[in-house]
Amino acid sequence: MLVLPTGQILFDDRLGPQTIVIYTQKGQQNPSWVPQVTTVPTSLTAGGTFTVSGTQLNGLTQGAAFGDDWQMATNYPLVRIINTASGNVVYARTFGMTSMSVTPRQASSAQFTLPSTIQNGPSTLEVVASGFASSPISVTVSAGVNPPATTTTTTTTTIRHPPPKRMTIVCVKAKKTKKVTAVRPTCPSGYKLRK
């Protein structure tokens, strides 16, 4: 079993290539599970190395394990950049993590290097840990690849990131309750999340 960046689980029951299955869980994630980015540069250069800092960048689980045979750890941050114009998704190489802890709200940082072939222009950056993505941060990529100026017939594969799902939480304050629906819902001031 391997936790994918989408939050799905890739499962291979060892009976051959026809028995690989992807499991998609129903329901919604708890907003407290996602990584929180506190600092990252908003001007990025293709081929450059940068630092991202925040809390819970390593997720809340080490991933999947099967006995003493396979250990598929996913407690490391993935840096995902999505080009605003084209929707192209690129994952940067991450390394140099200051922590691999899965303790809730653990502060850490990591370095990431953009590929030199990344597309220029306005983009969003997310940190993904164990399938949970941080809130998107607006960035601009330069010194990379410009889209072609003319239309040509080529075959390309574009991975489109699905739009974030909205979720509803219930907040309480004394005897009052309030429902909040958003991509990353938070309780209003004075209210607490109903557990």
Walkthrough of the structure:
With 195 residues, this protein is mainly beta. The protein folds into two domains: 112 residues, Sandwich (Immunoglobulin-like), CATH 2.60.40; 31 residues, no CATH class. It has no helices and 17 strands. Strands 4, 5, 6, 9, 10, 11, 12, 13 and 14 form a nine-stranded mixed beta sheet that branches. A three-stranded antiparallel beta sheet has the order 1-2-3, with no helix packed on it. It has a three-stranded antiparallel beta sheet with strand order 16-15-17, with no helix packed on it.
Summarize the structure.
The protein is mainly β.
Characteristic terms for this protein:
mainly beta; nine-stranded mixed sheet; 195 residues
| Major sheet attributes | 9 strands, mixed
The CATH topology assignment of the largest domain is Immunoglobulin-like
By CATH, the architecture of the largest domain is named Sandwich
Give the H and E element order: EEEEEEEEEEEEEEEEE
What is the total tally of β strands?
17
Instruction: Tally the structural domains.
Output: 2
Radius of gyration: 19 Å
List the helices and strands and how they pair.
Layout: E1 2-3, E2 9-12, E3 20-23, E4 36-39, E5 43-45, E6 49-55, E7 63-66, E8 70-73, E9 78-83, E10 89-95, E11 107-113, E12 121-129, E13 132-133, E14 137-142, E15 167-173, E16 176-182, E17 192-193
Parallel strand pairs: 5-14
Antiparallel strand pairs: 1-2, 2-3, 4-6, 6-11, 7-8, 9-10, 9-12, 10-11, 12-13, 12-14, 15-16, 15-17
